[in-house]
Structure formats: structure tokens, C-alpha cells
Write a structure and sequence with these properties.
Rossmann fold; alpha/beta; 9 helices; seven-stranded mixed sheet; 206 residues
Length: 206
């Protein structure tokens, strides 16, 4: 058994979940700016996540779920997941985003598991608060090490694929580190850089 861990936003999914949600309530530009700064490593991920989610306060959960269930997969996502599983990889998604998006994606495309965050809601309305498994810049690295211990998969049999600054911590614990259409800060930690927007290119790196 081997392990392949993908980031979600702008890696498995073509875009940023928070930006799709923000567009639904007319605050897209504010969220895009905060997201860009976080992914470049200019803002602490925890603080930027809290700021962005607070802007969604008052949004209906029904609207959130409708948007999240229709997010566009990255080109080649379905094929790369299927091919990796044929090669005995456990294929996992780590996301600084939300279960509203990652769970439908997991169920549709056959991921083995997802680890992400939860948008807090009350009476079907977002409160602007968030909690969960992927809140900090160190979260992905910590969870990767936990999975490696539980599944007894060594670093040498682990590949990770991501695009932003909050993927650095998982890059530190993988045998193969793939930066996919990534920000410069992540490229400096990668041993493979893919610039074409097609996830099947990952298969050429194995």
C-alpha cells in the first residue's frame, strides 16, 4: 500500500471554494484578495481562514451546499484518482476548505478519505465561524504523519500534490513532492513542478 495526498482547492477542484461561495453573496473581490495573500504565504492561514469565513455570515446552508455540490473538478482529476488506486495507492484529500465540498467530491470520484473543516451553522444559516481538522498552516503535515503511522506507509511511499503555502507542511513528510500550477513559495519546496493544468501529468511522475 502507498499513499497519495492531494490538496483540494485549485488542485483536485478547479478554483477556490471560498471564492465560489463569496460570489454567491457578492463579496468575491474581498475574499479573493485574502485568499491570494494567504496562498502566497503573506498571511497566517488560520487568520486568513477566519477572516474569509466571517464574511459568509448569514449565508443559507442550502445555498452553500448547492454551490459546493457543483464545483468543477480539475481536468484529469477523475482519471488520476482511478489510476492511482489501480497502483495500490490510498488516495486522500486534505483541504483548508470545507466538508460541504470535499465530501460530495469524495463520494463522486472515489477518494478513500477527506480531511477538511466545518462551517458552523445555526438554524440553517452560517454563523461566520469555522472549526475542524485543517485550520492551521501545520495541519496537513500533522495529519499526513498520523496517516503514515496508522496505515504503516513510509515517507518513501508517500506522494503529495498541492499548490499553495498551506501545503508546505505536508511536503516536508513526503517522498515525492509535486507542485501543481503552484505559487512560487510552494515550488521552492517541491521536487516536481507541473505547470500544465491537467492532473494526469502526475502519473508521469510516478
Amino acid at each position: 500500500m502507498k499513499l497519495a495526498v492531494f490538496d483540494f482547492d485549485s488542485t483536485l477542484m478547479d478554483g477556490e471554494t471560498l471564492e465560489f461561495l463569496a460570489a454567491g453573496v457578492g463579496i468575491e473581490n474581498e475574499v479573493i484578495e485574502i485568499t491570494a495573500r494567504a496562498m502566497r504565504g503573506e498571511l497566517d492561514f488560520f487568520e486568513s481562514l477566519q477572516k474569509r469565513v466571517s464574511l459568509l455570515k448569514g449565508m443559507k446552508v442550502k445555498t452553500v451546499n448547492s454551490i459546493c455540490e457543483n464545483l468543477p473538478p480539475m481536468s484529469g482529476a477523475e482519471k488520476v484518482i482511478k489510476e492511482l488506486k489501480k497502483l495500490d495507492y490510498k488516495v486522500i484529500c486534505f483541504s483548508g476548505g470545507f466538508k460541504n465540498a470535499t465530501i460530495p467530491f469524495m463520494n463522486k470520484y472515489g477518494l478513500d478519505a477527506e480531511f477538511s473543516n466545518i462551517l458552523h451553522e445555526k438554524d440553517g444559516i452560517l454563523t461566520g465561524l469555522v472549526g475542524g481538522e485543517m485550520m492551521f498552516s501545520s495541519s496537513k503535515g500533522a495529519m499526513l504523519q498520523t496517516l503514515q503511522r496508522l496505515l504503516k506507509i513510509p515517507v518513501s511511499d508517500t506522494i503529495v500534490i498541492g499548490d499553495g503555502a498551506n501545503d508546505i507542511s505536508m511536503f516536508e513528510h513526503a517522498g515525492k513532492k509535486i507542485a501543481f500550477c503552484a505559487k512560487p513559495i510552494l515550488k521552492s519546496h517541491a521536487d516536481v513542478i507541473i505547470e500544465v493544468k491537467d492532473l494526469t501529468a502526475v502519473l508521469d511522475c510516478i
